[in-house]
Amino acid sequence: xxxxxxLNPPFLRGSTDALLCVSTKSPLEKGARGLSxxxxxxxxxxxxxxxxxxxxxxxxxxxxxxxxxxxxxxxYLFSLLNIKIMQKSMKVTFYKILIVSVTLTSMLGCTxxxxxxxxxxxxxxxxxxxxxxxxxxxxxxxxxxxxxxSSAAVSLLGLSLLEAQEPLVKILxxxxxxxxxxxxxIKAFGFTRDDRATDIIIELLDSESIPLQTAAAEALGTLxxxxxxxxxxxxxxxxxxxLNIKRLLAKALGNTNNREAxxxxxxxxxxxxRGLREVAKKSLEKITKQADGNDPAWWKQWWVRNKxxxxxxxxxxxxxKQEENTxxxxxxxxxxxxxxxxxxxKLLELRPDKSD
Length: 356
Description:
By secondary structure, this protein is mostly helical. Helices cover 74% and strands 0% of the residues.
């Protein structure tokens, strides 16, 4: 019988039949089809929700709430959602759950999932995946393929975690470690410009292995951070360091192209070792683009005039100096071309005449 159907109560039977007819012939989601239909469906949703609670009193309360409080656009959106579900013949159970969620949202605004619960469910999986990657990359550090070793080292440094850095530092400190593995790790620090192992890499400049020394010097020159430049400068000025380490550090400081290295390099011009002075002078010329200074006094005066300049002024001076150097080079090049042409003419004039 009709009154036994809980989805079609006697006091809504005629209204729901009319509403379903409207939704079948002209879907509400394609346009407004009357606020009265939306209002009826909102009452129907409320009734279904109260059937689930088993309380007719709840229906009266919620029905009156929707009638008096719920805005018509809200009831209209509410009806659109449920008509769409009815048209797709979804299960009544899911329909009830959806009605409960939407109704509670309208009344209390508290259907959002607790962020803490979601995070707690995701974190264990993320943590497990991270540990798996750490173990995989740490194992790959000892691969026979240098590309795989470097890739693994770069990946570990990319995590910026102390736990990820530990196996790399351990490799650099182990004097019995394979030199090729150490070179790959050093290059990774230089490639990522990670200065956390600067002290260790400086110590490796004193290694008996030439490939290790070269890799360490190149990596230090690519770091270019204030911390790394400060540590390299302190090591270069340390009287206890060997001349070889000081030369390598002076060259590395020049490769940074950073004006933070100018002052310590100027101090190296006063050293007794000619080789170190030459390296320091070349590094200064590379950073400042100045090629006129031949003694420490000139460089000191130049630095007094320029050290207080802003970064923009400093870069502007470098650009102007480069343009000046380019013009000088072009002038010398044209002079050489003219000289070559003149000598070629003289050679042709001295050539014996072979004509009859």
